[in-house]
Amino acid sequence: MEPVASQEISGITIDWTLIVGILVAVSGWITVFFQRWQFKRERTKDSESWLAEFIKYRRQQLKPLAETLRKAYRIFSQNQVNAPAIWEEAMDRARFPNGLPIKPLSRWNGEHRATLDSQDEFLMRLAEHIYPPFDSTDKRSVLERSTLSQEDYETFDNARGGVADYFDQCGLIRQQSSDFARFLENRVRAGHYRYVKLLAYFELAYVRAQGDAQLRVPGKKHLFELGNAWKSDDPRK
Description:
Layout: E1 6-9, E2 12-15, H1 16-76, H2 87-93, H3 108-112, H4 118-130, H5 142-145, H6 150-176, H7 178-208, H8 221-230
Antiparallel strand pairs: 1-2
Helix pairs in contact: 1-6, 1-7, 4-7, 6-7, 6-8, 7-8
């Protein structure tokens, strides 16, 4: 027996094929709507999580880094001709260093240091003020050789590591998620590229300070890649 496509009930002809088709279509629309709603909710949740981490980084890591760097800069800039008044100005005058990422990072000083001009070199020397280059005749630790007090050095070093880790993770996730890449472009880049650049200089100084251990310090590859992607924002080209 063939299936009944239509049926007359109380003088009304019901086309079951049409009704089934409508129900299937409605079900499909509901599924698509739910999928889009779920996707939008996940994107909103991700965006809120990214923003929360961004706020946390600024409060817990960037703030102590800036405060201790201000102390270090006052000492470093004394009696230096034409030194910028504040460290933020020195940071903005410098350009993102060439040749990054490089492996091992310890090669950079010998191969690319000469490409720095005077304003770039000024920022590098500020970084080396806190992380002095390794000296085989000086057996003291980096902390002992730094011009910062032990308390300020530990505060700065922890904050610097936290900021570097944050942007290194940002650089990695940016490659994996177009939504996160848009978040970085819209919410982070304009005000915080300068800190990515600053951290590149401090990474270079930090690895050079390690002496025999420097070959085991890989550096922040994804932070360097993020800096390369944004270095067109440098005021000086």
